[in-house]
């Protein structure tokens, strides 16, 4: 969460901890104990959403980057085998279709890389038997196809993680608003009653309600 929300959340946690520690001293005021529990539950939900928002995309991106590196290697290995085969045979493979390098693959956008690797897969399947002496055996073709599929899946996972992160962020803000409503609409009201006979406890509560800019 951003600094503004984090400062608010830290204040909420201080209030929660103070209320929990002083629950007995505050007495059996109707609705107070239930409101404290409800407030704590909302804060637990906020914390869980913050973890989801922070970690999902990072892990998915790391997995996608590793899958892309593998696909680029497999594509280049296959292209090298096909080039060698093409040099020593009259096979009709266009030189333009094999005109790529490791650096050019790295510069391609993700969808362009998938398109390029799909075309290399088609060539590999078409010439696999003939190019087998140059290393293009069935296992090499399968490895390329698996790398292509894995990268496609990881790319989709990143897109999903971005959507999930946005959803988690929206839910987090909604939960923060819920916590604020509980604090102002219930807990503050009940603590005003506590202040009548226990002003010292009330002053401690008000001290916990201060947002500290960190």
TrEMBL record:
<protein>
    <submittedName>
        <fullName>Uncharacterized protein</fullName>
    </submittedName>
</protein>
């Amino acid at each position: 969460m951003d600094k503004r929300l984090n400062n608010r959340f830290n204040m909420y946690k201080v209030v929660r901890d103070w209320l929990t520690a002083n629950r007995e001293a505050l007495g059996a005021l109707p609705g107070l104990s239930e409101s404290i529990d409800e407030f704590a539950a909302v804060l637990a939900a906020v914390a869980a959403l913050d973890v989801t928002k922070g970690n999902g995309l990072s892990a998915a991106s790391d997995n996608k980057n590793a899958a892309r590196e593998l696909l680029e290697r497999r594509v280049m290995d296959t292209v090298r085998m096909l080039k060698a085969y093409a040099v020593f045979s009259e096979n009709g493979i266009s030189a333009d279709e094999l005109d790529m390098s490791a650096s050019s693959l790295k510069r391609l956008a993700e969808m362009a890389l998938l398109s390029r690797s799909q075309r290399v897969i088609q060539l590999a399947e078409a010439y696999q038997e003939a190019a087998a002496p140059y290393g293009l055996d069935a296992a090499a073709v399968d490895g390329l196809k698996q790398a292509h599929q894995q990268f496609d899946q990881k790319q989709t996972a990143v897109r999903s993680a971005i959507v999930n992160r946005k959803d988690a962020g929206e839910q987090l803000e909604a939960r923060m608003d819920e916590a604020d409503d509980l604090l102002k609409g219930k807990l503050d009201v009940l603590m005003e009653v506590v202040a009548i006979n226990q002003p010292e406890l009330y002053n401690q509560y008000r001290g916990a309600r201060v947002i500290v800019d960190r």
